[in-house]
Amino acid sequence: MSEVAEKQAEPGTAVPARRRRFFMDTRPLRHRPYRRLWTSTIVTALGSQLTAVAVPKQIYDMTGSSVWVGIASISGLAPLIVFALWGGAIADTVDRRRMLLFTNSGIALLCVVFWLQAALDVNSIPLLLVLVAVQQALFGMNMPARTASVARLVPAAELPAAGALNSTVMQGGQIAGPMLAGALIPLLGLPLLYLFDAIALCAALYAVWRLPSLPPLSGVARRAGLADILDGFRYLATHRLLMVSMAADVIAMVFGMPRALFPQLADTAFPGVNENFALGMLYAAIPIGALLGGLLSGTFSHIRRHGLMLVIAVCAWGAAIAGFGMSSSLWLAVVFLGVAGVADMVSMVFRGAILQAAATDEMRGRMQGVHTVVVAGGPRLADLLHGVAVPVAGASAAVAGGGVLVIVAMTVLALAVPAFLRYRGPAR
Questions:
Q1: Is residue 181 very low, low, confident or very high in pLDDT (cuts 50, 70, 90)?
Q2: Burial of 223: CB neighbours in 10 Å, binned 0-12, 13-18, 19+
């Protein structure tokens, strides 16, 4: 067991083994510190989606232009990349609990500023772009510390189950958050969405405050610099297992994430179906599939062949996306996207477990920082790639072809590194 998990495990709170084989494995919740971190994730997953809806809605209301909405999204990418890498290095050199308190406090204060500018009708696009950039910088620093802390709070054998628990609540937030935002805006107005997010973050802060101290295992805290970031890249370059796990996500997202084409497909691919209804179904299908995969994660989270499972999951994602691209029926398209969501959940669970178990604690924050950049940057590159492919091949062919490319590229990568296929996670 990890040092904290061993001290604070609570017997009698786990799901019986028979149920774990099918339903979500909740063994990590036996450990009080992890349970507190997970509870804070539930609150922030829902609250953050309120802000995620409020920002583009406010910008569109001010400008009437989707271009400005896109600019706002891109404005946060560079700060996210820079501060995720730096934040990963910091997370390896300081107490991760203190880092989580600092970044969560910063995001909560920023939400208050979002609320004030909306409530006072400041109507400043430059101010909103700056706030988005700062928000993404703080998020980039928060995520490496949060994810790198998990391996200190649960035993190594329970990392896949912990990953499934984390991913499930995040996916649940992506579904419930926008629905709640849509219901609250007509009733209470857009500005209060920001305030509710700030309140949720304050609740999460209390949970983080009650975590145990998580200093470097060396016992020496120090200031992180550029050399630490470069050391992380050198470490990654010499560990093929970690390289392949991140490359798998790049392959799946860059070639196989077709979200940029959802509006066009909703308009043209399903004759006789209301465009807005089709668009909503397309956007909801992957998160719903991922949520279902999380709820049934007991069927796979106990498997030790982590490398093989990741390869299978990425290829299943590619096959489902190819099927979606060839679908002329909306409901068949939704089913394929739902299957893709399940495959994405399986991929997230085993990719996360590999990153947590294969990296040493002194490098875990930096690896999670790189992983944050990969997760954030891959879909944005996919938006560009699919947009360029449409004039050449058409929307449906671009999506289906991307799915096939995922299968081919992942198969080639797996065959090139057979040790990855043989990799097993820690025994129970």
A1: confident
A2: exposed
Q: For residue 399, give the nearest of 342, 327, 341, 332 by alpha carbon.
A: 327
Q: How far is residue 119's CA from residue 122's CA, in Å, rounded to a whole number?
A: 8
| In the predicted structure, residue 328 carries a pLDDT above the cut 70 | yes
CA distance 50 to 405: 35
**Tokens in use for 238?**
């010499």
Token readout for 229 is: 């970031």
Encoded tokens for 342: 């399940």
Residue 31, SS3 per DSSP: strand
pLDDT tens profile 362-386: 999 999 899 888 888 888 788 878 8
Taking the C-alpha atoms of residue 1 and residue 201, their distance in angstroms, rounded to an integer, is: 30
- Tokens 């209390």, located at residue: 206
Q: Report the C-alpha gap between 237 and 27 in whole angstroms.
A: 34
Better-predicted residue by pLDDT, 17 or 302: 302
Please answer whether residues 150 and 115 qualify as being in contact, where contact means their C-beta atoms are separated by less than 8 angstroms.
no
Cβ atoms of 307 and 385 closer than 8 Å: no
Q: Token digits for 130?
A: 């700056």
Burial call 181-196: b when 16+ CB within 10 Å, e when fewer: beebbeeeebbbbbbb
